[in-house]
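User
New here, help please:
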Amino acid sequence: MTWAYLRSRCESFGLSLDAFTKHDFHVHVPAGAVPKDGPSAGVTMTTALASLLTGRRVRHEVAMTGEVTLHGKVLPIGGVKQKLLAAHRAGLTEVVLPRRNAVDLDDVPDEVLAELEIHLVDDVSEVLDIALV
């Protein structure tokens, strides 16, 4: 879905359609030792591909999570508390979350929230504005 979204909006990213038609890309997500479940990495995958195609770096202090639809809408995910605690432990200072997960912030300790800037988003274009340099 992320590929289709980026391709459909290539002009808004300053890319020609050639970036999508003249190059082959392979995204490999090995099973490895880290369990993966669900679509939470949608915004992360979209951001990584946008970074690759535009040459814009991803800001190293930003974490992100959320499912992405074909139209670029960011949908809610589970495990918000655990993800924010992990981002905080890792020393990140900003986190991008789906706006519909705002209610889950009540479960996160106040001292953690005080040290994180939370960006609530509805669309992946907002994610890219926040995450890419």
Observations:
- The beta strands are 62-64, 67-68, 74-75, 94-98, 117-121.
- The chain is about 35% helix and 15% strand.
- The chain has one domain: 2-25+39-131.
